[in-house]
Amino acid sequence: MDNRAEVREFLMSRRAKITPDRVGLPTHGTRRVPGLRRSEVAALAGLSVEYYSKLERGAIGGASAAVLEALAEALLLNDTERGLPTIAESRTSSANSRHRARRSEPCGPNMMSARTGRG
């Protein structure tokens, strides 16, 4: 299910609701739009501005649970917002893709036999 528009709208609306004062950031001059700048959200979440911008465009499916948690903390999401389908689906799809990747890689003693054909 492609929910990019939904993710984009959700993240932008949450970013717009938070003032710099609320998260302990200094305010310098006037702002063209309400809320935090992308660079401020990225800094609060420990992400690069480019990566946060990619997430805000809706490409959140490959984000790790740690990234989603850091983003939730930076945007001051409450328990209800963290459980919304937009975020919950992304967490599930991220976990599922990591699980599939792990299952397809040979590991342990069988790895050598898989590569060499000897067992």
UniProtKB/TrEMBL annotation:
Matching CDD domains: HTH_XRE
InterPro entries in alphabetical order: Cro/C1-type_HTH, Lambda_DNA-bd_dom_sf
Naturally occurring in which organism (per UniProt): Brevibacterium sediminis
HTH cro/C1-type domain residues: 35-75
Region feature (Disordered): 82-119
Pfam families: HTH_31
Stored PROSITE patterns: HTH_CROC1
UniProt xrefs under Gene3D superfamilies: lambda repressor-like DNA-binding domains (1.10.260.40)
Name of the molecule in the record: HTH cro/C1-type domain-containing protein
Lineage: superkingdom: Bacteria
